[in-house]
Design goal:
Distance between the termini: 30 Å
Radius of gyration: 16 Å
Strand order of the largest sheet: 1-7-8-5-4
Number of helices: 4
Shape: globular
Largest sheet: 5 strands, antiparallel
Strand content: 15-25%
Number of strands: 8
Helix content: 25-40%
């Protein structure tokens, strides 16, 4: 019974660690309702361990395919990876993705004193991309951009 309730738990916000960052901007949505965005983020998969996600595959959606979107009311959470390469599979921690969405809700949608109610995004895993830019001749055996971007 507890596993049925778990997806509805408010995602714990996880702040991006530099060089990762977040940005709030009406381009990603405006006049958003915090309750809708909390619900959309809460619809994301849960789990504390890395899970393989298929990237840009054709075929059926089973919850472990990226890009991924979850919608509630007028709010949509979009999860994707980006970078100079596109791997076929990427290992991600579902609770990290939820935390990124929670951070955008907390910092962009809920911050009414700063204008709030806007969408935004946060990044994770930029270190590999920074290393690629600074040392482009370096050969990497793993994907450059293992982690996700989370848009609200």
């Amino acid at each position: 019974m507890a596993s049925e309730a778990a997806p509805w738990i408010y995602p714990r916000a996880i702040a991006p660690v530099p060089p990762n960052f977040h940005e709030c901007n009406a381009f990603f949505g405006y006049n958003l309702e915090q309750a809708d965005c909390i619900m959309a983020a809460a619809l994301l998969p849960t789990g504390a361990h890395e899970v393989p996600y298929a990237v840009h595959t054709m075929g059926s959606y089973d919850g472990t395919t990226l890009p991924m979107q979850k919608t509630a009311g007028r709010c949509m959470v979009w999860v994707e990876i980006a970078g100079p390469t596109q791997p076929h599979t990427v290992m991600l921690v579902p609770d990290q993705i939820r935390g990124m969405a929670g951070w955008v809700v907390e910092q962009c949608v809920a911050m009414t004193a700063l204008g709030g109610k806007n969408g935004g995004f946060t990044t994770w895993g930029l270190t590999a991309l920074v290393n690629f830019v600074l040392e482009p001749t370096t050969r990497y055996s793993s994907p450059f951009y293992r982690k996700a971007s989370n848009l609200l």
